[in-house]
Hints:
Layout: H1 3-19, H2 24-36, H3 38-58, H4 63-71, H5 81-84, H6 92-99, H7 101-111, H8 116-123, H9 129-132, H10 141-160, H11 171-180, H12 185-192
Helix pairs in contact: 1-3, 2-3, 3-4, 3-10, 3-12, 4-8, 4-10, 7-8, 8-10, 10-11
Amino acid sequence: MASKELKFVRKNLNPIISHCHDDWNTLHTLTIIRNYDPQLLVHCINTEKYVRQILEHLGKTDEELCTAALLHDIGKIYLSNSILFKPGKLDSVERTAVNMHSYYGYTYLKNKGFSERICEYVLYHHGKKNEWKDLVPAQSVELEYNTDILRAADIYDAMTSDRPYRKATSRNIAFSVLEKENIEENFISSLTCETA
């Protein structure tokens, strides 16, 4: 792990560990993510940070949503490195494989005994509720609302961070994409007051 990433993880992982110090499953899963790809761990930490920021802005708390944010991309461990780290555009077969990561994550977390709500948040974190409804029919207004918080945080961090296939975009471009994705304005406004 690069020195900059290591400093980031040390700084940002300590508060997370204090939230889940007695939750071996979460800590173990974070270790698996880190061992698979340290940059993916950084993205998961950032996503959790942005979820907490949105929740705080809304005057809410939801530890299951925060845990789901930390673990939302665990399903990527089942993807080939040649797909996950491909520097160019994905073809349709590769895109289909990547789109499966939320289902793989749902299955992984369910098998490890995580709550149904955490598993559902991970399954629906890309907002494709119709795609999985036959496999996991439980949906509610609260589930949709909260997964949109997770989706906003995930998209925002993915766009404003360097990726293997592109450089980071500006915050304004990320906000524009969030609007096009029909993310609620109050979620977006909570990200405008980013606390680096």
